[in-house]
From TrEMBL:
Keywords: Hydrolase. This is Putative hydrolase of the HAD superfamily. NCBIfam families: HAD-SF-IA-v3 (TIGR01509). GO terms for molecular function: hydrolase activity. The keyword Hydrolase applies. It comes from the Bacteria. Pfam families: Hydrolase. The keyword Hydrolase applies.
């Protein structure tokens, strides 16, 4: 696809996928977590006996906190192939039956001015299947999955500011014209550091972080690095004046 060239009044929307455009917490995230635990237990075991839950949970949490994604820790410290990890952890017998999303998302996206890019830390095959099921693919000019988030041949998924800067350069986007729509605060915080606008979607959140190490506070206060907090992406259009 060609690079994006925008006029001064047209924003560029970077949409996250899981727990932003659909409810991944309903069934998809629990299965990914189970698959990931099985994978880590096998890799961290002694070759015969899988590692126990305590070792698995500690490694998953430590790698997520240090690198922003458990995958990066597994690649760096255990020579795991990223493609194999993503394939194994995103294996679903019947993905369509697990997807839950609001109706009218296509109409919503049509009402939002400017180009839309899907920017997801999920793998390409899985995210393509979800977008196809939601019938949203035609609303996005680009689909950037985790496999494409590389800087100097190293995976750099969200919240990497290096990856975001590279994305801006590739598509000739000024950061101030870009709006990141996300459920994950760490990703929004990184984007705000380099000048992007930020919109926090909260309705599908069950935990304060992707590894489930911290529960959400009762009051979801809007951090200073979040320009707009909305329960649903359906509310973005009415808050657009806050994002310009």
């Amino acid at each position: 696809m060609p690079a994006l060239h925008l006029n001064r009044s047209s924003p560029v929307w970077l949409f996250d996928l899981d727990n932003t455009l659909h409810n991944a917490s309903h069934a998809i995230f629990p299965l990914i977590t189970a698959n990931m635990n099985t994978y880590l237990a096998r890799v961290l075991g002694d070759g015969v006996t899988p590692a126990d839950d305590a070792i698995v949970n500690a490694a998953r949490a430590a790698y997520w906190r240090r690198y922003g994604a458990t995958l990066l820790g597994m690649v760096k410290h255990h020579q795991v192939r990223a493609a194999h990890f993503l394939s194994e952890t995103h294996a679903f017998a019947d993905l369509p039956s697990m997807i839950r999303a609001e109706r009218g998302l296509g109409a919503l996206l049509r009402r939002l001015p400017g180009r839309k890019i899907l920017l997801t830390n999920a793998p390409l095959r899985y995210s393509s299947d979800v977008m196809r099921h939601l019938r949203l693919r035609r609303h996005f000019t680009h689909h950037v999955a985790i496999e494409a988030m590389q800087v100097h041949r190293q995976l750099r998924p969200k919240p990497s500011t290096l990856m975001l800067r590279k994305l801006m350069r590739k598509h000739h986007i000024q950061p101030g014209r870009c709006i990141l729509v996300e459920d994950t605060l760490a990703n929004l915080k990184g984007a705000k550091k380099i000048g992007l606008r930020t919109a926090w979607v909260t309705q599908y959140l069950k935990m304060a972080d992707p590894i489930g190490a911290a529960r959400l506070p009762k009051a979801l206060n809007r951090p200073a690095y979040v320009d707009v907090k909305v329960k649903s992406v359906r509310h973005l259009a009415r808050r657009l004046h806050r994002l310009r």
